[in-house]
């Protein structure tokens, strides 16, 4: 499975073409509006603005952890814009684990597909960083802040 061929839609139900981001890093973050880590939206927006030349931030709403993202697409979009001024991409709400795991997260979490490492999504705001050539660099647990040097050291500034 080629990373750039994975299909996912935006909150507005239009396709997000991952191939449009070849040559840039992509940071995927499973997001939720009612989580203790929700304030990371602010830092994700800062990261998006500061590194937009070589980084695409994509928030991926998920309601699998503590039912902390119960909203529909419009409620999620309104929450992100009103509370955090989010202008980066937000995808449709998906499952990031389990029987209905979205193909994106199957690729992100499976060494057989990403050729790097296997992982499991532990909680909201876990992050996955993709290289400009579509390879998994690494993943980071929720406690790792978006602007942490663990992540930013990989992004050419």
Give a topology summary.
Elements: E1 7-9, E2 15-17, E3 25-31, H1 40-50, E4 55-61, H2 73-84, E5 89-90, H3 103-109, H4 111-114, E6 127-130, E7 136-140, H5 149-152
Parallel strand pairs: 3-4, 4-5
Antiparallel strand pairs: 1-2, 3-6, 6-7
Spatial shape: globular
The helix count comes to 5
SS-based structural class? alpha/beta
Order of helical and strand elements? EEEHEHEHHEEH
Strand portion, in percent? 15-25%
- Output the radius of gyration: 14 Å
Proportion of helical residues: 10-25%
How would you characterize the largest beta sheet?
Answer: 5 strands, mixed
CATH domain topology? Glutaredoxin
Total count of strands: 7
The CATH class assignment is Alpha Beta
User: What is the name of the CATH architecture?
Assistant: 3-Layer(aba) Sandwich
Q: Could you tell me how far the N terminus lies from the C terminus, measured between alpha carbons in angstroms?
A: 30 Å
